[in-house]
Structure prediction request, 116 residues.
Amino acid sequence: MGDISNKAEELTGSAKQAVGDITGDDELRAEGAADKAAAQVTQGVEAVADKAQEAADEVKQAVSQTVDSRVVIAALASIAVVVALTIRRNRRTSRSKQHPVAKKVAAAGIARALTR
Prediction:
């Protein structure tokens, strides 16, 4: 909406300036030039503000994506640690269970070999 009103003000300024040129009214010509210049400055300021907002939005989106990536990486790392600890625990548990059996098998094998 601001763009339309600024354009209208710029056109009004141009019209005043043209009428001042035609009629020889220096005051109207100056007023038209001032209105036109003010509208152009306002449009320029709004354009810069729009570009700044776009840049801020892009930075915000990039930061959001970076944070999202870090969260995913942290979650995957946590899962890997849990899996590694579970595997380690299961190995310890299975080794402690295998040792008595291995000893019995070895003892039985030795006893069998001696009895033959």
The mean pLDDT is 78. The radius of gyration is 42 Å. DSSP finds two helices and no strands in the chain. The CA atoms of residues 11 and 26 lie 18 Å apart.
